[in-house]
Amino acid sequence: MKKSFCLILIFIISVTLYGLKKDNNGISQEMLKEIEASFKMDMHAKFAQNALAEIDARKIVLNREKIISIDPYFSNKLESQEITNQESTGRCWMFSSLNILRPFAAKKLNVKNIEFSESYLFFYDKLEKANMFLEEIIKTKNKPLDDRYVEFLIKHPISDGGQWVGVRELIKKYGLVPKDVMPETYSSSHSRSVNHVLRLKLREYAIKLRKIKNIKKARGLKLQALKDVYKILVINFGNPCKSFLWRYKDKDKKITSLKRYTPKQFYKEVVNVKLDDYLAIYSIPTRDYGKLYEIDLDKSVYDRPNLKFVNCKIETLKEIAKKSILGKQPVWFGCDVGKESFSKKGLMIPAIYDYESLYNMKFELTRKELFETFSNNPTHNMVLTGVDIVNNKVKKWLVENSWGKKACKNGYYHMMDEWFGYYVQEIVVHKKYIPENIIKIFKTKAILLPPWDPMFRRK
Asked: Which residue range(s) make up the domain with 109?
């Protein structure tokens, strides 16, 4: 009894002493004095302080020497079409995917320019994503709300973001139509409001579905939810056509006869590219190279495949992209567009913002460290349409953007090869440009990554 009492007493004293023990890891007065003493307000610091009191740092740290060092020429440049504009939406993945298909249609139709209806695909992308969300809610209804998978679903019921695989499967299922058959509406080009309404409605149905035990009743409620989603989409985007009459003027200024198409028939006659022949290659230095990965739910259509990619070194991506452009085919790619890029001049150059001179200190992270610290994220998709090779070495890349021709340099970025090495994460190319040893990896079993993986596009 005495021994037990002594043990309890020792425990109480230990806990009390631990609670009273001071934590010496805070900023003490002595440490603060040392920190304050380390800074000297010299002329450089005073000038920087005065400047930053009145102007954005990015405007005064632009490295003029780097900007004027870039010439506008490319040794290899693909034939261009008119620049597209995704406006206030996160549809870059869709625009860039369609932009690599437009040249096929232009050649087939003998026209200088053609644009497909992004609004048409956007309509079905929203409907399909709503179905995927609701189906996953039904599948996980017995899990608690704070389960990480359920939490992810509730936080991201629907978004504008996506991948090449999404466009691939949407086209295979719904086809394509010309832009003038289903043009943009304000809502399709400014999606914030419609996304807000869709999220409200989907979360409302999610709560109801989680309470239903009978699977047949749950599916019945899901159908009603999709009817509501469809109504919202029609009001915002217009009715997607099942067939349409269309004609066009070719390069010879000849107006063709009116012809009726279904969207699938239009794609087959005008593009007819085997979409499954285009494969995704990533370069993620925090994961093993030479492996096939799959990101759960990174897709647009529920009953179609997730995004799958082979992880390779960045040098491999560069070489494959170069081969594709030299083979006259553009390259879809993803990157962290806001890092060290100057959109006003259409330039992507490492250290284009000279923070080192402003603060008199170095800022250094390797490519791997950028990924390790979540400083390299997939924020934008564009198309490589040119490569500048000087003395057998790639100097820069021509990038077709989808922000309209008033953005960047007439709608294009000039990307330095070093920037590619830091901030590009993925490319999609035809398999004929991919080495056979990488093609074989696509036939192996994929390592499944969760939907909260940093490479998941959910903007």
From this structure: 76-449
Tell me how far apart the alpha carbons of residues 258 and 269 are, in angstroms, rounded to a whole number: 15
Inter-CA distances, 247 with 105, 113, 182, 244, 272, Å: 14, 14, 14, 10, 18
- Residue 319, token pair as written in the block: 């070489």
With respect to residue 111, please indicate whether it lies within any of the assigned structural domains.
yes
Q: Strand pairing of 278-282 and 307-311?
A: parallel
| CA-angle at 384, arms to 63 and 404, nearest 5° | 75
- The pTM is what? 0.92
SS3 state at 81? coil
Query: Tokens 């007819």 label which residue?
Result: 272
Phi, psi (degrees; rounded to nearest 5) at 190: -140, 85
- Alpha-carbon torsion, ordered 428, 431, 432, 435, to 10 deg: 90
Residue 33 lies inside a defined structural domain of this protein: no
Residue 391 included in any domain: yes
CATH number at residue 159: 3.90.70.10
Q: For residue range 87-126, what is the model confidence (pLDDT) as tens digits?
A: 999 999 999 999 999 999 999 999 999 999 999 999 999 9
Degrees (nearest 5) of the Cα angle 71, 77, 82? 100
pLDDT for 375 equals 94
Q: Phi, psi at residue 311, to the nearest 5°?
A: -90, 125
Q: How far apart are CA 103 and CA 403, in angstroms?
A: 19
- Residues marked as catalytic: 92, 380, 401
Residue type, 226: L
Task: Please report which helix (H) or strand (E) contains residue 416, including its range.
Answer: strand 412-416
CA dist 176 and 361 (Å) reads 52
**Percent of the chain with pLDDT strictly greater than 70:** 95
Backbone phi, psi, residue 376, to 5°: -135, 105
